[in-house]
Amino acid sequence: MSDYKQFIPCIYLLEGKAVAGFKDPAVVSDDPAGLARFYGENNADGLIVFDLSDDDPSHEAALDTLKLICSEAQIPVIGAGNIRRMEDVKKLLYAGCKRAALNYSKESNISLTREVSLKFGKDKILACVENAAQITANEALLTEYTDQLILISEKDIRQSIALAGEPLIVTLPEVSLDKIIELLSLERICGITGPAINANARELNSIKDLCQGNRIPVHTFTPAIPWEELKTGPDGLIPVVVQDYKTREVLMVAYMNKDAYLHTLKSGRMTYYSRSRREQWIKGQTSGHFQYVKELVADCDKDTILARVSQVGNACHTGNYSCFFNEIMRREWEEETNPLTVFESVLNVIRDRKVHPKEGSYTNYLFDKGVDKILKKLGEEATEIVIAAKNPNANEIKYEIADFLYHMMVLMVEKGVSWEEITQELANR
């Protein structure tokens, strides 16, 4: 359980659109992924996505949308709705959800609890309950196999709190600052969700400030180093080196004054001071190419900041991803074979072959023959690894693994799977 009280908006997903609620099909947004990004931009602590589909084909389509939501949200996503079997929980987690929530109004979901908890871990499983009676009837199961409860009705809050052995995320239908303070002051309440949060997403920073004023712990970007401890130049500015948090590529260099520094911390978006225009500016405000803060680090002298960011689009106004593209000189050197760089590079070559076929290309031969041929070759290469592992010559297995990985990447391109998706899934295990 987090030490912080959380504000968690929710998306009700129906036919690829975000609707108003479980029983209200009014369309809120035609772009659920964009709505998720909006919630993340406004410092929501997480997101619950309820899949309101009622059949398998619609559920599969919803999973595709959910995958986009998870990639855009920049905050942890809880997947819920239309869970019928363990496979559905697996698909939610594979789509990028950090956790899955079982609907305890359905007996089939209750019976799944132990199985999915043992399979994926208790910390991955929540339960949606409507009232205290559902908690009482399943107390032992909930305590042993779920991590948190989502109370989707406001009617039974007090009684549910008294009965629940797990932290509760409670639903509020409409905003009431007094009600928020009252609920979050209770030890067992770990977060608030529902229409009240959805409708006031733009005000989350202000609501969090109010909570802090009432000594309620909420997650904010509080600096370990205050501005006064940083060493600025005569102009009151400090240089900021901006780096892609995944690749470590340097994207740009800019400057901050105190206001830009504090706005960056408060908003979670990189904000700078323009020396030429003499004004504060939010990166991406005009272009949409925002930079979301992952980490701010000061150097040894505290006179330069290194910002590791999630970059949307391109960092440079020229349209280049990085501002550093004008080569001055270059000496030949043997580059380190960073596995992720190599894998991504090879995958890009294979993608290009699929889009731009080359006569005589073995890769195109595999694509032309189709997925069955690719799978056959993949199986053959897997067998070769097993045989090579029995050989005392360690070099042989190296070659066979490389062959297997190549054929695996052909399959990845054929099925539209990226290395980012795979590494993200591994990181979540």
Low-confidence stretches: none
Annotated CATH topology of the largest domain: TIM Barrel
Spatial ordering of strands, largest sheet: 1-11-10-9-8-7-6-5-2-3-4
Shape: globular
Q: With helices defined by DSSP (H or I, 4 residues minimum), what is the helix count?
A: 16
Q: Please, what is the CATH homologous superfamily of the largest domain?
A: Aldolase class I
What's the alpha carbon Rg, rounded to whole Å? 25 Å
Name the CATH class of the largest domain: Alpha Beta
* β-strand number: 17
User: What structural category characterises the helix and strand content?
Assistant: alpha/beta
Summed up:
The chain is α/β, with parallel strands linked by helices and 429 residues long.
What descriptors fit this protein?
alpha/beta, TIM Barrel, Ubiquitin-like (UB roll), Helix Hairpins, 3 domains, eleven-stranded mixed sheet, four-stranded mixed sheet, 21% strand
